[in-house]
Design a protein that fits this description.
Length: 316
């Protein structure tokens, strides 16, 4: 059952309170809280324990970098341990977020990323930070080049593939719902390249949602998404069946960004009108909702998620 509405007189939670990018990583959330209070030793221990799990390392550093105070504490850490690749990577991610918020020149953030990359040639995270910056501010050539740098170090990098899908989906909005659009080719190629248990199996669903975001923004698809017809065509049925069958067998929630995949899949199943399947996904998501894709196109994500969850569980 969905939670009851808040009592009269109490404001509803802001989106920032509902959507925590840390997802179900409680160790990450605890380290972030400590870092906000200036205790960067907790972050040091967290990243040391993370080791060479590149997807988890990237997720943790990107989330830690979002906090406004992170850059200052990362700089203090760097002064104490100038050869620390972890400190440099954290500083780089924080610099990228500042640049994306317009509080720092992109060139300075790029320099911080290159310095971090020089301290650990195998780590894809500084390149992921550069890709995150280029995804929003760079050219297509930059995005492709940086994606290749990440993939060279970790071929199945989850976040990097999501960034590429988001950028590719924005090409040629005038084509409308074209099943041959390159974003679908890229997603299919990524699935074919990945091992059977890779959560990149969900990438075609992400591509379909990102393409809807672009089409709706260009007035080439109607809103709300569940009434748009975008999830009722042959391509959507093929994409959704394959992704849902994979989830039933492999359970991608074990991945550090698995809840992101589950949100995209639940959104798609709800839009397809498959209430029972969507309800099962909502149950697995639990409290770990994500803003995307529930905000597509320009909706209040908390309201959209809550309404979809209530409807799916109520009908299941």
């Amino acid at each position: 059952m969905s939670p009851p509405p808040p009592p009269l007189g109490r404001a509803r939670k802001r989106a920032a309170d509902v959507f925590d990018p840390a997802l179900d990583d409680t160790e990450l959330a605890a380290a972030r809280t400590a870092l906000e209070r200036g205790r960067w030793a907790d972050t040091r221990a967290l990243l040391e324990a993370t080791g060479r799990d590149w997807d988890r390392r990237g997720h943790r550093l990107v989330v830690l970098g979002q906090a406004p105070a992170t850059r200052a504490w990362a700089q203090e850490w760097r002064l104490v341990e100038p050869e620390s690749a972890d400190a440099a990577a954290l500083f780089a991610c924080a610099s990228v977020w500042r640049a994306l918020r317009g509080k720092e020149r992109p060139e300075r953030a790029q320099e911080a990323c290159r310095e971090a990359a020089a301290l650990d040639a195998e780590d894809p995270t500084p390149w992921l930070a550069l890709l995150l910056l280029a995804r929003n501010l760079g050219s297509e050539e930059d995005v492709v080049r940086l994606f290749d740098e990440v993939r060279h170090r970790h071929p199945q990098h989850h976040h990097a593939h999501h960034l590429m899908v988001g950028r590719l989906a924005e090409r040629r909005a005038d084509l409308g719902q074209d099943p041959l659009h390159e974003v679908y080719d890229f997603a299919s190629w990524a699935v074919d390249q990945a091992p059977p248990d890779s959560p990149l199996a969900i990438l075609p669903v992400v591509a379909h949602a990102e393409r809807y975001r672009v089409l709706a923004g260009a007035a080439r698809a109607s809103a709300p998404p569940e009434q748009s017809g975008h999830w009722s065509g042959r391509l959507a049925r093929i994409v959704l069946k394959g992704a849902f069958d994979w989830w039933l067998e492999w359970d991608g929630a074990r991945h550090p960004r698995g809840r992101i995949d589950l949100n995209f899949l639940a959104h798609a199943k709800f839009c397809e009108g498959r209430a029972a399947e969507a309800a099962a996904l909502f149950q697995r998501i639990g409290p770990y909702a994500t803003e995307e894709p529930w905000s597509y196109p320009g909706r209040d994500p908390a309201q959209a998620f809550g309404a979809a969850r209530s409807a799916a569980i109520g009908a299941a």
